[in-house]
Design a protein that fits this description.
heterodimer; A: 173 residues; alpha+beta; Arc Repressor Mutant, subunit A; 3-stranded antiparallel β-sheet; 9 helices; globular; B: 239 residues; mainly alpha; 2 domains; 4-stranded antiparallel β-sheet; 8 helices; 49% helix; 6% strand; disordered N terminus
């Protein structure tokens, strides 16, 4: 293959969701994983140095082109749609699921001191939260966890990128 | 001294409790339980009087607080083991945990959200919305509409006589009129739709018709900024 870099750049461009190195390897065939990683990092650097309107970012275990943070106002003007807003109740519920997953609904209720049923179904509908299984206790309640889309929407490489609870305390002080 | 009512929207019983603790600048590890329980119950009363739905969780916490209060009133028994756990311990732990998640939620909200702060390729661009050269049309709520309604009503009131209406206007007539006016138009202002109907009844009917149409999602109302002009868009044309 002559221009691996161009090929990789093209398929990331054409992909709807963040493209993982594994998927790229699947497409490209006989090529070392390490080479793909190198190319990806080259690309990330190139776009950063270019300092244009968008750049390549590692998101949800893959790579995706994104517009620069400070240009959102222009895109909103173009699209003229209001982004689906997450209300504080939804954010809190999402935080509990993200940090405590896999977690049952009764635990979310307990932490927030309020029934999370409606909010939780909203998050399921938005595909930010999913059912990951059932807890092995009487009644076999559903366990919830976050989705890949959650990582994509919240600009996270992986769940480990979320600040830990003690780190949060520092941030707020 | 009057009791100042400040009603934020609380996310739950713990949120309310946390709010009271912050408001009183109380050390979370040493909650004056009598004061807090009193204020908590007062808030529940206000919420009840406003006909807000009081979820069961609020009452559960109220009873827990009252229980702690009664426990703390009991004299400490001085036989042998002195390390009786503080009855407030459970609630403090719960509050700290909730506080941590509240912070986590804020932290999540501060990230660059896809579709809000950053964007990926593609997506829908609305072309059929008219270019009104107005920056950022925010959707208006009922309160802004009521305000606009009141403004229109004010000049009308001056020349009002007691009139007996005989032309028998109905709400469905007004709805049909408005939809007709909007047909073929990209948008009209609230005042346009009022037309010459400056009598009180006409205004009220127009207003009710717009509200009804909004409820049916046949029109949508947008405003370019606070106190700005309200524009009514027909919705049916979009899809």
């Amino acid at each position: 293959m002559k221009n691996v870099k161009a090929v990789i750049e093209a398929i990331i461009f054409a992909s709807e969701t963040p493209l993982t190195a594994g998927k790229i390897r699947e497409v490209l065939g006989e090529i070392e994983r390490s080479e793909i990683i190198d190319v990806l990092h080259d690309l990330v650097v190139e776009y950063n140095e270019r300092n244009g309107g968008f750049y390549l970012k590692e998101i949800a275990g893959g790579f995706q082109f994104r517009t620069r943070d400070d240009l959102g106002v222009w895109i909103k003007k173009l699209k003229r749609t209001r982004p689906a807003k997450l209300f504080p109740a939804a954010m809190e519920t999402l935080a509990v699921v993200a940090y405590r997953q896999p977690v049952v609904k009764s635990e979310i209720d307990r932490v927030r001191g309020v029934d999370a049923g409606g909010v939780l179904s909203g998050l399921l509908e938005k595909n930010l939260v999913r059912m990951v299984g059932r807890k092995d206790v009487p009644g076999r309640p559903i366990l919830y966890g976050t989705t890949k889309k959650f990582l994509e929407v919240f600009d996270l490489k992986s769940l480990s990128e979320l600040p830990t609870v003690p780190e949060l305390k520092e941030l707020s002080e | 001294m009057g009791y100042e009512i400040k009603l934020d929207i609380f996310e739950g019983s713990l949120d309310l409790l946390l709010y009271l603790i912050k408001k009183n600048e109380i050390n979370i590890y040493d909650i004056p339980i009598t004061l807090i329980t009193e204020q908590y119950l007062k808030h529940l009363e206000i919420m009840k009087s406003l006909n807000l739905d009081l979820a069961g969780e609020y009452l559960v916490l109220a009873s827990a607080l009252t229980h702690i209060k009664s426990k703390m009133l009991l004299p400490v028994q001085e036989n042998g083991e002195e390390d009786e756990p503080d009855p407030r311990e459970d609630i403090v732990r719960q509050l700290l945990e909730y506080q941590a998640f509240k912070k986590a939620a804020m932290n999540l909200d501060n990230r660059s959200l896809l579709g809000r702060d950053v964007f990926k390729r593609g997506g829908i661009v609305c072309d059929d919305m008219p270019d009104t050269k107005e920056i950022s049309l925010g959707e208006v709520g009922v309160f802004e509409l009521v305000k606009a309604f009141r403004e229109i009503l004010t000049p009308a009131e001056e020349e009002e006589f007691l009139k007996i209406d005989v032309d028998g206007m109905s709400l469905s007539d007004r709805i049909n009129d408005i939809m007709e006016m909007l047909a073929g138009q990209s948008s009209l202002t609230f005042t346009d739709l009022m037309g010459k109907r400056t009598d009180r009844k006409g205004i009220i009917y127009t207003f009710l018709a717009i509200l009804e149409l909004m409820k049916l999602r046949m029109v949508s109302a947008h405003q370019m900024d606070s106190f700005g002009m309200i524009r009514i868009f027909p919705v049916a044309a979009e899809r």
